[in-house]
Design brief:
Layout lengths: L15 E3 L16 E3 L4 E3 L2 E5 L6 E5 L12 E5 L7 H21 L2 E5 L15 E4 L7 H12 L3 E5 L12 H7 L5 E4 L7 E4 L13 E3 L6 E3 L9 E7 L20 E6 L3 E5 L21 H16 L6
Parallel strand pairs: 6-7, 6-8, 8-9, 9-16
Antiparallel strand pairs: 1-2, 3-4, 4-5, 10-13, 11-12, 11-14, 14-15, 15-16
Amino acid sequence: MKHNKWVNLIALSVTLFSCSGNASTVSENTTPHTEHVWGEWEREEHHHKRVCTVCGEVEEGYHKDRVCDICASFKILALGFDQGGDSAHSDFAREANEWFPEQGKEQGFLYEFSTDFGMLNDETLPDYQVVMFLNNLPYEQSQREAFEKYMREGGSWMGFHVCAFTTEASSWPWYHEEFLGSGNFRSNTWNPTTECLKVETHDHFSTEFLPDTFMSTHNEWYAWEHDLRKNDDIQILLSLDESTYPVGDREGEIWYEGYYPVAWANKNYNMMYLNMGHNLQSYNDFEKVSHTFSNREENDFILDGTLGLAQRCAFKY
């Protein structure tokens, strides 16, 4: 796996600012001007600065615990719930809210979590290069329309587990039928189990460095209405390895045969859906048994997918 700090991924254009700003350094041979003409930001691990190309004034800043908005190579907006709902789903969000910021420190990106799907609007979305649905999806029409516009115009998205769940795909046909391609939820396994996953292609930034097969963390696996193999727009990334069946361990919710994709991309959009996102835990005392982000190969898949999506974001209003 090759992770690089794409510090210069998002180019910042030259912007004009008022001369009334605080200056830390000013050249003695200044040219009279009423507005600064700033050069591009120069970034180091804990420091950033830019210089006025007219007078030489320097604007700079420092940060210690994480990259700042200026130095971040990209920003992630993660949406979902971290309290209430299905306890395993909210627990996954809490795990993600710890794991992604840690990766951000190493890779130079910012991760922001919100329970407010109202952030899916034309004013907020331009600030983010990747949108994530951790365990839910928008239900208001205005939010859905803003998200669809964001994706159609080059935005990036990663969705997990239950964000694809529906028994009424017709309520948002673009998302469930065109974008995801999966249609309605059909069935699931139980209890959450760790399974052997087959890499269906290495011709994708998320799977390029993965082995041909690897063991997953515990998860509740979903089956869908549509056979994604018949959809030319869908690129299946991972599937359950049929040679290692059965899947699940509670009678009536065990799969003994069949083909089940668990991660895929849509070739018409910059997106990835991952079925992962449901830990094993007791629903009697909510004792946590497994951790989604405890598996090296699965983590590599998620991180390389995130970095690749950000690199390919082409969204601009």
